[in-house]
Amino acid sequence: MEVLYTGIVSFFKKDITMTATTYLWMIPVYGYAVVMDAFAGSLYPIPFFFRGVIWLIIIWSVEFVSGALIKKAAGKCPWDYSESKYSFYGLIRWDYAFNWYAVGLFFDFVRPYVDKFIKIR
After folding, report:
1. Residue 114 in domain
2. Spatial distance between the Cα atoms of 63 and 78, rounded to a whole number of angstroms
């Protein structure tokens, strides 16, 4: 998803090669999705749109904590929102709330279908 997003953004910045980027530091961050997946089933009694708020809070928390840890270990965070007036310590952005809310609901919606397809449970 990150590579797709950065590729599309580069296209809108007039890069017709649609150069996309990610960082090796992101492997453990995205790996945390396995932990979140195990937690996801317990959210199903909660109404769908409220689960979006929970996912938003979880995503922001993971983004903030992992960003702070990477910044401490490497000296800088792969994403740096410091220039945005909507950033919180340069690690999360308040104006991305709807994006993360929608991403959380998207994965929440497709999770049962993916589980049936790959039969991991």
Report:
1. yes
2. 11
Could you list the beta-strand ranges (E) of 20-119. Answer: 87-88, 92-93
What's the predicted TM-score (pTM) here?
Answer: 0.80
For residue range 87-98, list pLDDT tens digits in order.
999 999 999 999
Which of 119, 117, 105 lies closest to 40 in space, CA to CA? Answer: 105
Asked whether residue 6 is domain-assigned, the answer is: no
Report the number of distinct structural domains present in the chain. 1
Q: Is residue 14 part of a domain?
A: no
Dihedral, CA of residue 40, residue 67, residue 85 and residue 95, to nearest 10: -20
Say if 29 falls within a structural domain. Answer: yes
For 111, the domain range is 25-118
- From the number of C-beta atoms within 10 Å of its C-beta (0-12, 13-18, 19+), residue 58 rates as middle
For 18-40, what is each residue's pLDDT tens digit?
999 888 888 888 887 777 777 78
